[in-house]
Amino acid sequence: MSHPVKSEIYMFGFRGFPGVQGGIETHAENLAPQLAQLGHDVTVCFRSPYVDAKCGKGWKGVRLLRLWTVRNTYFEALLHSLVCALVAGVYRPQIVHVHGIGPALVTPLLRLLGLRVVVTHHGEDYNREKWGWAARTVLKTGEALGMRFANKRIVISRTIEKLVAAKYGKSCDVIPNGVALPEIPAKTDKIAELGLEPSRYILSVGRLVPEKRQLDLVRAFVAAKLEGWKLVIVGRIDHQNRYADALATEAASNDNVIMAGFHSGESLQQLYAHSGLFVLPSSHEGLPLALLEALSYGVPVLVSDIPSNLEVIDHPAHIFRLGNIDDLKSKMSALADARLETAERETMRRYNIRRYDWTDIATRTSAAYAELIGAGQTDAVFRPTAARGRAKLANTAWSEFWRSFQETRHHMP
């Protein structure tokens, strides 16, 4: 295999890392150091509200750049992306790698600045239940501009690849999320602090937002009346919302439901490793990292039947119909009664690591960079120097916004 072209990579579109909640955050936390190990000069941009000013300037060979934004559900990503784009215009990296369709809104600006742009599409964020029509319009516009104007597009699942081909007629590199093979912790002190016994609790990990549908899980668990079992919901809210309040209220009404808050490191490892069942009831995912992490510990899983989950899990006994509390209850009860032997768990662990190996993912991402750089300056970088070229770009961007606005308004209740 040929050696990767070493290049300067400038990356943004996530809150920060390490230990910051979120799928894209976990993706970047694993990918960036792997790219640095391959010899790339990697700079990542963090959002100031989520990372302490004392975070330092480097981590695992990655240069850290903490840039300002407000902490606001609707404006923080857009403002931070704009700041990142302007800094990139000064910094002049060989590759700007944007993560997520919201931050991809600045792709035309990056191209106008004469930069090569890679956009990774992590999922249809406009389908998240928390967004109103205005936010959905912006996200759909970001998707359109990112997919139309990026020099190269990466998607994390075959489902998203098909979506981009159908909507924009563009080809993509399919490079999934990854997971490392963890050591199985022997200790149980962290779960004991939560009043848990090994293999006698159901685990759910994710942000407390409507599309994660933890309320479905709480209601199914209460209805199942699993003797001796508890339900543990790991996650926290980034911004106050009514869904999280409703979830906390229902959870508080049952002593066997534990709202554990955010966990990372050893405590999260123990929670995964010693759980009896992991459940992902989401209505929206890209390629769910929490599910891949559960599989990396050899834990039995139960998932909703959305396309992204079905790319990972295909056994009917481990799939329930989205939003169907009765189906979730019955499948959960059946899996709670089942037990996997150590050898079966180890086989599952090894199989999924081969499918979602971070080293392979970084190598494939590096190859995508090399292909773009190898295309040459003329082919890789869009430079609308003439007034007509700039006007065409602005007109296309406005057309995409207006199309997204009309589409979103049409589908809103």
Overview of this protein structure:
The chain is an alpha/beta fold. It has two domains: 8-178 and 357-411, Glycogen Phosphorylase B (Rossmann fold, 3-Layer(aba) Sandwich); 189-355, Rossmann fold. It has 16 helices and 14 strands. It has helices spanning 23-37, 76-91, 107-112, 133-149, 158-168, 189-193, 214-224, 242-252, 265-273, 289-296, 307-310, 325-337, 342-355, 358-374, 377-380, 387-411; strands at 8-12, 41-47, 58-59, 62-67, 95-99, 117-121, 152-155, 173-174, 201-205, 230-234, 257-261, 277-280, 301-304, 319-320. The protein has an eight-stranded mixed beta sheet, with helices on both faces. A six-stranded parallel beta sheet has the order 11-10-9-12-13-14, sandwiched between helices. The longest helix is centred in the last third of the chain and has 25 residues, at 387-411. It is globular and about 65 Å long. It starts with 7 loop residues before the first strand and ends with a helix. The model is unreliable at 377-384 (pLDDT under 50).
